[in-house]
Amino acid sequence: MTTPRLDVVEFRTVEYVSGPLVFLEGVHGVHYDETVEIVAPDGGLRRGQVLEVNRGRAVIEVFAGTRGLDVAATRVRLGGDAARLGVGLGMLGRMFDGSGNAADGGPPTMPEAFWEVNGLAMNPAARDHPAEFIQTGVSAIDGLNTLVRGQKLPIFSGFGLPAAALAAQIAARAHVGGAGEEGFVVVFAALGITHREASFFRRFIEDSGALGRTVMFLNLADDPTIERLLTPRVALTAAEFLAFEKGLHVLVILTDMTNYCEALREVSTAREETPGRRGYPGYMYTDLASIYERAGRIRDHVGSVTQLVILSMPDDDITHPIPDLTGYITEGQIVLSRELHRKGVEPPIDVLPSLSRLMNAGIGAGKTRPEHREVADQLYSFYAEGRDLRRLVAIIGEAALSASDRRLLAFADEFETRFIHQGVTSRSLEETLDLAWHLLAPFAAADLKRIHPETIAVHRQETPSPQPGLVSGAPDAAGAA
Amino acid sequence: MSATSGSTVRVAGPVVVATGLDEARLYSLVRVGKRRLIGEVIRLDGEDAVIQVYEETSGLQTGSVVEDTGVPLQVELGPGLLGQVFDGIQRPLPPLAIKDGRPFGEPFIRRGVEIPALPRDRRWDFAPAVAVGDIVEPGALLGTVPETAILEHRILVPPRMRGTVTQVQAGEATIDQPVVWIDDQPVPMMRRWPVRERRPIARRLDPDQPLITGQRVIDTLFPVARGGTTTIPGGFGTGKTVQEQSLARWAAADVIVYIGCGERGNELTDVLKEFPELSDPRTGGPLMERTILIANTSNMPVAAREASIYTGMTIAEYYRDQGYDVLVLADSTSRWAEALREVSGRLEEMPGEEGFPAYLPSRLAEFYERAGAVRCLGGDREGSVTVVGAVSPPGADFSEPVTQYSMRLAGVFWALDTDLARRRHFPAIHWTRSFTLYDLGAWFGQHVAIDWERQRRWALELLQQEEQLQSVVQLMGADVLAPTERIVFLIGRMLREDFLQQSAFDVVDACCSLDKQYEMMRIIRLAHETTQRAVQEGAEPDLLMSLPVFADVARMRNWPPEEVAARARELETRLIEEVEAV
Question: Model-level pTM?
Answer without folding.
Answer: 0.91
